[in-house]
Specification:
By secondary structure, the protein is of the alpha/beta class. It has six helices and nine strands, in the order H-E-E-H-H-E-H-E-E-E-H-E-E-E-H. The strands form two sheets. Strands 5-4-3-6-7-8 form a six-stranded mixed β-sheet, with helices on both faces. Strands 1-2-9 form a three-stranded antiparallel β-sheet.
Length: 191
């Protein structure tokens, strides 16, 4: 099994663990940011990380791996490859997370929902709802990084390769803003 220490080393080697003043997808601010795109740009790292994630669900009879666009696409594909199952991704259309492009979840299929980084679990909860709306059974959630320090309860078996407790602040309470540090939005979604 891939250890948290080995995972962190991979993130450091790929410069995917950043420090500064960041606006998170949730709108909150933080002094640390995980930019998984930087680690996933290296196929060898993606293979090692997703194999480590897949190993945690080998005995859960997974039929499909699903992830949210954008961050979960590579993670879903590579994890599914190691589990020898289908990979699909969901995306928002008119603000609603759904499966498009001919992707489907058949009633009763056991689905592993994966994500690159979990902060509040918002995107993962939307994918879980989309899976259940199609009759799928959510067998678990896997993430490369859990930024909540393990505090996000998704109601199913949840595994992450690296758990970090990273402070985040409401914008109006952010000490980094009070210090006048420039705010960066490194993610892919606009708020």
């Amino acid at each position: 099994m891939l250890s948290a220490k080995e995972t962190e080393k991979i993130f450091m080697n790929s410069e995917a663990l950043l420090t500064g003043h960041f606006r998170l997808t949730s709108g909150r601010h933080s002094n640390r940011y995980i930019q998984c795109a930087r680690v996933l740009q290296y196929p060898a790292y993606a293979e090692v990380l997703c194999k480590g994630l897949a190993q945690r669900f080998m005995n859960d009879r997974i039929d499909v791996v699903a992830g949210p666009a954008m961050g979960g696409i590579i993670v879903a594909y590579e994890t599914a490859r190691h589990l020898n199952v289908r990979a699909v991704f969901s995306e928002r259309e008119e603000g609603i997370m759904q499966f498009r492009r001919g992707f489907s979840i058949r009633p009763g299929e056991r689905v592993l929902v994966v994500e690159d980084v979990i902060t509040t679990g918002g995107s993962v909860k939307e994918v879980i709802e989309a899976v259940r709306n199609l009759g799928g059974v959510v067998a678990g959630v896997g993430a490369l990084v859990d930024r909540s320090g393990g505090k996000t309860d998704l109601g199913v078996k949840t595994e992450s390769l690296l758990t970090l407790e990273v402070q985040s602040f409401l914008p109006e309470e952010c000490p980094l803003c009070r210090e006048g540090l420039p705010l960066v939005k490194p993610g892919s979604r606009k708020i």
